Amino acid sequence: MEESSASAADIASKAFMGTAIACAARIAKPADSGWLRKSIRVSGSVNTHNDRQQEMIEAVIWDFGGVLTTSPFEAFTRFETERGLPADIVRRTNAANHLENAWAKFERAEIDIETFDMLFAAESLALGAEVRGRDVLPLLQGDLRPEMVEALKRINAKFKTGCITNNLPANAIGSRSGRTLYVAEVMALFDHVIESAKIGLRKPDPRIYKLMVETLKVDPSNCVYLDDLGVNLKPAREMGMTTIKVVSADQAISELEAATGLVLR
Fold first, then answer.
1. Do 243 and 237 contact (CB within 8 A), yes or no?
2. CATH number of domain containing 204
3. pTM for the whole thing?
């Protein structure tokens, strides 16, 4: 499920939830071969070829923040309210020049935290209020969604699984904060994990999706991809993947069940 374009707030939201270089890949599970439906319409309904397509899925690829965890929107809002900042200043800062701003560069590990802190402050000031980049980092921790983790476990038993996450060097898997954000038991459910901070690429760069399917050795048209941002879903859809835009856990699981034919709760 996908929108053709993303709003500025939508683009910015995912930039903050970040999480090729992978956790060690487990032995890949046998996968069915064939073709999968190309997309789930924005309305959420599955096309009429669904039964045949369900039989041919090879892999399900997941975003992390905002999909397996809750979104940090509420934390951003509390932060802005408590400090008397303009509404949505954090998200608007990240929406401006979103491919080359401070956050994008930090997620690609092109700058260190000191430079990020300074650049983010300058960018936010240009939009009306100075916000230090360092002050935003603690707001990124989301809570795991147990129902989504259960769905991942069931998917993992049937299909290959991958995770493509935009993250920051400070939150990379194995770092102190990363150990909290990326729970080891959850990350072990993926055959392959790609972190933007470790490879210098970030979504929506098409190369990061290509790297995932090449590593999993699957056809993009036989993959399902979940993300909470339309802008990150677009390249996957253009490659032929079935895409699901995650608005809520219940909605996402319902669409994933329709796409795979599995009972996921």
1. yes
2. 3.40.50.1000
3. 0.72
